[in-house]
Amino acid sequence: MMRCDRTVAWTALQGHFEAHGRELDLREAFARDPARFDAFALQAPEVFADLSKNRWDLATRRLLVELARECGLEARRDAMLAGEPINTTEGRAVLHTALRAPRGQGPFSDDVHGVLDAMLGFAEGIRDTAASGIRDVVNIGIGGSDLGPQMVVPALDAFAQRGLRCHFVSNVDGHDITPVLRGLDPATTLFIIASKTFTTQETMANAAVAREWFLAQGGTDIGRHFVGATTNLKAAAAFGIHTTFGFWDWVGGRYSLWSAIGLPIAIAIGADNFRAMLDGAHAMDRHFAEAPLEANLPVQLGLLDVWYRNFHRFTSRSVAPYHQGLKRLPAYLQQLEMESNGKCVDLDGEPLALGTSPVVWGEPGTNGQHAYFQMLHQGTDVIPVEFIAVKHPTHPYLGLHAKALANCLAQSQALMLGKTTEAALGEKAPTASQQLDALTVARHRSFPGNRPSTTLLLDKLTPRALGALIAMYEHRVFTSGAVWGINSFDQWGVELGKALASDLLPRLDPGPQRGATAGLDASTAGLLRRLTE
Ligand code: F6P
Question: Considering only CA atoms, which residue is closest to atom 10 of ligand 1?
Fold first, then answer.
């Protein structure tokens, strides 16, 4: 693969940025081109995107597509879809797309559909609460074994079974599991121990606490009340779990909600809805595999990310879903994007002289408007914002829905349009101090504008639409990672902290080594003393 910063297109993009990119003004661009909205509109399965309020033009887009071609994006995409071991540092294929391929169509189809059928059958059995006796489902997992289901279950609340509650415990901090257990009855609770490796410290510790609690509360039949979603069936059996739903090393943790890790989702929304979610993701997979790069939504978003990160040098992107059900989407995207593309060496291990993953962060609208949007509008950094709006709500309060949509559109408008000091001078400002002169007040009340945003529209937040949306994000992360020439599918960066925590644990646990500071840096030693004395 050609390193992006050594391509002809990269050099051309640098020249284009200096000549037309840095100073591009969105207000002027719209005034010049009445067809700009249409030129930058893209319809993918279930997701419409307005990319016109971004600081790029048609030439930028053309050069970015050339960059993608020069970097071998299509070949790398095809290699992923064909099951080649593109996760080179772990020698693994990357085949989350196989998890949503229709029966008989993708790689490992018999294995995939065998587990899927078994998992969905089990989920339906639990949903029959009269027969199963289960009222509460507790998923114990972390990272990719938590964030996907924790995001999807509330997002699809309108499709969820009533009378069956889903809880999520991830943090090794006991303040997470304690309030969850407080409200539960062991006789009516199912624990899902979700861990690809079945070795993750947090999950194993919480699973042990749950088992202890279950027995202490008079629970009987661990085999019926604890099930596992894992690739490590042996370790699950050693824990005492006999019902396990397996998956494979070619499913990355942050790409695993389509596998057995999706069990809480399947229990919440049922087999048909789970299959609809897979179907939506598969439709997006086809789009990613087949649409020309110019009309390929994940590709366009990934290339825009490269443009912003490496040319405009924006360091973060804010996600603002105007749908409360998507409240956990920013957290989910943080792992998807930052664990995938937060890398500083290329596939050959050579240091990269360019920025990679942006910081991804956000909150649902309109809550964010009353918190950090001030900074987006008037702060000194430019932060591209991604708005997500849904045309039809699944609640009956149409007045509330109109307000949510009006706010969503207004924010992207305000970011782009801004307000000049002259315009502010012409307005009344009844709440401003009378002690200040009008010009000073107007300067405080003006907005620079020209702040970029993307708006994604869904018709309705159905299982199919959500499946397509998530798959779109997966392929977008793939695109920018492929252009940067990095391995988006390993996560060595989490290992150092794990090793150091193992070293520190005996120094904090009650025992002979408690408080020992030998070999520690002065700061860590000082903190340890304060925590143990
Ligand atoms: O944080 C590192 C990580 O390996 C993630 O990639 C993964 O999603 C998470 O830990 C949980 O891992 P497991 O499913 O093996 O418990």
Answer: 143
Q: Tokens 């419409």 — which residue?
A: 48
Whether residue 336 is predicted with pLDDT greater than 90 in this model: the reply is yes
Chain centre distance of CA 252: 14
Do the Cβ atoms of 360 and 338 come closer than 8 Å? yes
Rounded to two decimals, the pTM is 0.97
pLDDT in tens, 154-165: 999 999 999 999
The span from the first CA to the last CA of the chain, in angstroms, equals 55
Q: Is 197 in the pocket of ligand 1 (CB under 6 A)?
A: yes
Helix residue ranges, H only, 361-397: 373-378
Confidence band (pLDDT; 50, 70, 90) for 2? confident
Q: Is the pLDDT of residue 1 over 80?
A: no
Q: Can you name the residues that pair with 447 across neighbouring β-strands?
A: 419
Could you tell me the pLDDT band of residue 89, with boundaries at 50, 70 and 90?
A: very high
Quote the distance between the C-alpha of residue 302 and its chain's center.
14
Q: What is the mean pLDDT of the chain?
A: 97
Cβ proximity of 165 and 136 under 8 Å = yes
C-alpha distances out from residue 90 to 85, 86, 87, Å = 9, 9, 6
Question: How many whole angstroms from 502 Cα to the centroid of ligand 1?
Answer: 16
User: Is 401 considered catalytic here?
Assistant: no
Tens digit of pLDDT for each residue in 22-46?
999 999 999 999 999 999 999 999 9
The residue among 5, 531, 2 whose CA lies nearest residue 311 is 5
Quote the tokens at residue 255: 């790409």
Rg (CA), the chain: 25
Regarding the beta carbon of 232 and ligand 1, being less than 6 Å apart is answered no
Q: Give the CA distances from residue 414 to residues 364, 400, 420, 447, 451, in Å, rounded to whole numbers and listed in that order.
A: 18, 21, 12, 8, 9
Catalytic residue, candidates 339, 363, 386, 474: 339
The average pLDDT across 467-496 equals 98
Structure tokens at 450: 């020209």
- Give the Å distance between the CA of 443 and the centre of ligand 1: 49
Asked if 96 is an active-site residue, the reply is: no
| Pocket of ligand 1 contains residue 253 by CB under 6 Å | yes
| pLDDT of the residue at 254 | 98
- Whether the per-residue pLDDT at 113 is higher than 80: the answer is yes
Counting ligand 1 atoms within 8 A of each CB, the residue from 142, 201, 258, 332 with the most, and so the one to mutate, is 142
What does 453-519 look like in DSSP terms, one character per residue? EEEEEEEE--HHHHHHHHHHHHHHHHHHHHHHT--TT--GGGHHHHHHHHHHHHHHSSSTTTT--TT
Give residue-wise pLDDT tens across range 343-357: 999 999 999 999 999
Name the band, by pLDDT with cuts 50, 70 and 90, for residue 183. Answer: confident
C-beta of residue 81 within 8 angstroms of C-beta of residue 71: no
